Amino acid sequence: MLRFDALQAIYPELENRIVVTIMGAVAAELYTIGHRPSFFYLEHAMGLASSMGLGIALSMPQHKVIVIDGDGSLLMNLGTLSTMARYKPGNLLHIVFDNESLLSVGGFPTATATGTDLAGIARASGVPSVMEADTLESLARSAHDALASNTLTTIVSKVEAIGPKTFHMDLPLLENRFQFKRALEAMKKQNEG
Amino acid sequence: MFWHDPLDLHYLVDHMPVSATNSRLIYDALKACDIQIMSALPETWLVHLIRMADEDPDMTLVRLAKEEEGIGISAGAHLAGVNSALLMQNHGFLAAINPIVSLAFLYKIPLLMLISYRGHFGEKDPWQTQGGSMTEPILRAMNIHTWHLNNAGDIQRRIKDAQTLAQASLHPVAVLLHRELMWED
Prior knowledge:
heterodimer; A: alpha/beta; Rossmann fold; 6-stranded parallel sheet; 44% helix; 18% strand; B: 9 helices; 6 strands
């Protein structure tokens, strides 16, 4: 499965949702498929997209938050699984694309290439719902079910280590940041009104 | 084992020579700033503050595995329009330097960091002493405005002013909690 196709398969589920992605291929590909003001691309601070998602989920319990993580990033902050599992926000969906490599910096293999099992770590950390989805159909269905379930869910999807031709995004970091904050403010107001 | 019993945990906390009075003043000052989320890792000087946050139904206490996560949680909370604060030991601050730079500075995220200033004058624990000598030089090198809290009379004003500056500058600020304020032995 290509990550680009996987992102396209879940793209309809991202409508009116808050999305936080990691840097690199995921960000560039989602941006290419179609940017929305409620998408935030964390272009550094590897590992913290899930922590940001947790902060947003706890701050906006009426809204669904989707974190799109990767194996390299998650391995840098495995404690995040235990912290998410501790608070279990039902409005948080954590999707991990596992390509077993640090693709954007040369494709060196991560520990998932030699057997580290991120879904197993998520389960053992206490995440209440953990799924593995390695086809487009199962991924789209898992994401849909997770969002309907109001249960903190981690979905781990194995994808090929193939990235976009370019990582360029016509969106300066701070423009993304301020636009995103405004979008969240508007979603909150809409919910209240 | 006694530490599995919450009553005995309270006993343990109550018998540490940490100032409950000054912790209450700090907590009330944070509430006055409309802080709704607090992230923390346990540290002796912070025991009362963490317990107050835990017992306050209007406060979300996020117990972290490592301080770096707290920078992400506060960034998320800020973008979602909620005020947050971070409780950490100075060694926790040292652990969080990269995300402070590559998330908070990069994306102009205000952070209110309350840092227990271990390893300074009066420190008896040899293992705290290296971090004590590094804390202020690193804060200065990072261009993070720093308030010292060593006097109960300053607590309310300095925490309020720290939060005001963080929000206006969209930049982290540090409030160093000193031994004179926190420790009563």
